[in-house]
Amino acid sequence: MLDQPCIATLLAAVPTLFVFAVALLTLVSGAGTTWLPLLAVGPTLAAATSRPCGVLRIGFIAVALGAVLGGRGGAPGREQAIVLSALVAVTLASSLASALRGRRERVLEAVRSVAEAAQHALLKPVPATVGQFQVAVRYSAAAAEARIGGDLYALVPTPYGIRLIVGDVRGKGLPAVSTAALVLGVFREAAYDEPDLLDVVGRIERSLARNLGPDDFVTAVVAGYPGAGRMEVVNCGHAPPLLVRGSDVMAVEPTHPAPPLGMSALTGETPSLQVLPFTDGDQLLLYTDGVTEARNHSREFYPLTERVARHLSDEPSRTVAALHDELLAHVGGRLHDDAALLLLRKPVVAGPVVAGSTSATESGSGRQADNN
Fold first, then answer.
1. pLDDT tens-place string over residues 341-361
2. Could you tell me which of 91, 104, 100 has the C-alpha nearest to residue 46?
3. Rounded to whole angstroms, what are the CA distances from 40 to 17, 36, 47, 78, 152?
């Protein structure tokens, strides 16, 4: 497969090749100026791939070849002047178009840089190890050029154990990003201050009630590991997390379904706390609906539960990378909705070393020392 520099080089050569192909066609056919107007396609194509100086260079070649071939074919002076004038006009217009394209590309690159900075500030990178847990995260925004969307995630160590959130803001664009920033800001503060996980959710709910419109909401799963082999989960209208125990993958359906964040005042229902056993080797996968609702060309949803079981490993980063790559392959390379995956694993703690036991390496070292 060709890499990007090779593809760019080939595309840049297409306008020149086209100009010479038209010139060759004119020579072979002996049709005078019949084919010469096609020379204008050269600088027009160059406007999409080259800088203004490159467009002018190809336009100069096209005008020179048009003048030579027109004179060689015995074209009337007036007809030849019209053709050459058209070539010059198209070249100048293409140069202007190339300059405008370059300016837009620079503006887009600046916007993308700002979006990347905003994403790093909003969705802070999660280290591979947080406390006693292994963690892996993958996030893809549907707006690929912006590289940021309405899905959110965070994982913070607190005096009350590890706490994390994965959520999905209704809508897209800057309003969704603004809401995501609000939720993450409140979560990071409340997760550290509030001993009770339900109080963390309550603070997010109250903040959203003051700031969201009547039709806006956020689905989310908030989880925490207070210790003693248990995981606390609060599901607010979000897709159920997947609990991985051994080779079994189970959806953690909420025992008492709660509305999304920002809608409790309308329904009168409050979130409930669900406690799960979570011991060594267990894993918890949180995700957004951009994963499970991704469709292929046959309109089939991505079977996340099945694929998690297929790609299970002791390294969350490998599992999440395999799922993300397979998800992109499932949709044909481009997602139509934001998608986030966060996998948390509690490593297996090695057992105590038996007193008086000697490893094979230590025994071999001892033998070498004796031989010496």
1. 999 999 987 655 444 444 333
2. 91
3. 13, 8, 11, 18, 50
